[in-house]
Amino acid sequence: MTTSEQTEPTRLRMVAADSWRFGLIALIAFLTLVDLFATQAILPSLVIKFGVSRATMGFAVNASTFGMAVAGIAVALFGGTLDRRNGIWISLAVLAIPTTLLSQTDSIVVFALLRVVQGLCMSTAFTLTMAYLAEHFSARQTTGALAAYVTGNVASNFFGRLMSAAVADTFGISTNFLTFAALNLIGAALVWFTLQKASEMMRADAMGEPARAAWKGPLRDAELRACFAIGFLILFVFIGTFTYVNFQLVAAPLSLSPMALGLVYFVFLPSMLTTPLAGRVAAGLGPRIGIGATLALAILGLLLLLTTHLPIVLGGMALVAIGTFLAQAIATGHVSRTASQDRAAASGIYLASYYAGGLAGSFVIGQIYDRISWTACVAVLVAVLAGAIAVARVLQTPKA
User: Fold this and answer.
1) List of residues 6+ apart from 184 with CB closer than 8 A
2) Contact between 384 and 237 (Cβ < 8 Å)
3) Digit-coded pLDDT (tens) for 274-301
4) For residues 331 and 282, what is the distance between their CA atoms, to the nearest angstrom?
5) For tag attachment on the chain, is the N or C end more exposed, with fewer CB atoms within 10 Å?
6) How many CA atoms lie within 13 A of 216 on its CB side?
7) Using one digit for the tens of pLDDT, what is the confidence trace for 168-180?
8) pLDDT at 250 over 60
9) Which residues are CB-neighbours of 141 under 8 A, at least 6 positions away?
């Protein structure tokens, strides 16, 4: 048998193995983050249940992003020695507790606090998984693994919202949260049985520097600081858009029913196909142009949301999703490649910035929506993405 004949089967086996691993990573991402945005699909019903304003309910639902940001920082500072697999599965198992309690509460304050706890659990699992990928995959595989993880995130947005709307509309809000608690436990079991157990991980600083100092390195790097800012602005826009567009969709003249509102989130389906291409976009255009081009696409989508024609609005939502998810995947990959040391810290700070942006977007756009208009919201969101494109100008294409 010739060398080429031996090489081709080997290459195919490697591709098959990578495909299986990346599929598993995407499924873990789905089960980790499915609670995060699914509740947005039932926002109008929650407003009725709790009897509060749209801005208040939107902020309470997105309070999970505060927990995400806090946990991201905590893992960045103190997670260097945590066993990744144990940290991930325990976080997902604990996540089922606040998710179950959400089915029982009638207090908006308790609801918001439980969402914060959910965020703490989800972000811990998310950040540790990012570190696990960086530590267990080769440089060749890391970009694909990260893209798979972001693709799972996209799937959680799509299927999570669709499932939430369907279950809540058919069986009620309480059953909806119990269903998602079951998914949390399935995610914990999947991690337990599939991820490799590792011994004590490398500390943030191999020279014995205190773990609390791990964040200093990433913050000294201008490109990483730019990525942190871009992450903040991306989720500011994503949360601001997909939280409050729900109220536009159920109001006249569109007047969608709760079940129809869930079906609207098929707009995330194209993102599941395009997000895995983030690595190619970054390689072909570089991170600066790649992020600029994808966010320009999202700006176009935002402008389409100003119409009152449902097909055009849906097209705009799809473009916003495609653009922001691609930009997030490119920025995430750039953080992983740029942070040659303190990767857990860099990933944690990026995620903290990202989710802090989501909380800020929920609050700011909610106030503008209730006090001014949806048109003013779109104008602010466009300006924020323009700012992200400007920040991306400092990014450089990594050397091969």
Assistant:
1) 31, 35, 92, 93, 95, 96, 99
2) yes
3) 877 777 787 788 888 999 999 999 999 9
4) 9
5) C
6) 6
7) 988 999 999 999 9
8) yes
9) 18, 21
Q: Which sign, positive or negative, has the C-alpha torsion 339, 344, 349, 352?
A: positive
Identity at 36, one-letter amino acid code? L
The candidate with the shortest Cα–Cα distance to 128, out of 165, 185, 92, 75, is 75
Own/partner pairs, 194-200, CB within 8 angstroms, 24+ separation: 194/24, 194/28, 195/28, 195/84, 195/85, 195/88, 195/89, 195/132, 196/85, 196/136, 197/83, 197/85, 197/86, 198/83, 198/84, 198/85, 198/135, 198/136, 199/83, 200/81, 200/83
* Mean pLDDT, residues 374-381 taken together: 97
